[in-house]
Specification:
This protein is an all-alpha fold. The chain contains 3 helices and no strands.
Length: about 70
């Protein structure tokens, strides 16, 4: 089955938005530039890259993308 067809079939049977929307309640969101600089310093920092990687891994676990 193609990825598109598989995704369409899953969306047709959606029973909760958790299937395709990542819970952001425990992730950094909407921080100010000052807070970003204090926390990460740069988008090149390992700490920032780790957060991006964790988000990517969490997205891959969403039912729609499995």
């Amino acid at each position: 089955m193609t990825d598109t067809k598989s995704a369409c079939l899953k969306l047709a049977n959606v029973y909760t938005e958790d299937m395709f929307i990542l819970d952001i309640n425990h992730r950094p969101e909407g921080i100010s530039a000052e807070e970003f600089n204090d926390r990460y310093k740069s988008i090149q920092s390992q700490k920032y890259k780790d957060v991006i990687e964790e988000i990517g891994q969490a997205m891959k676990q969403l039912e729609l993308y499995r």
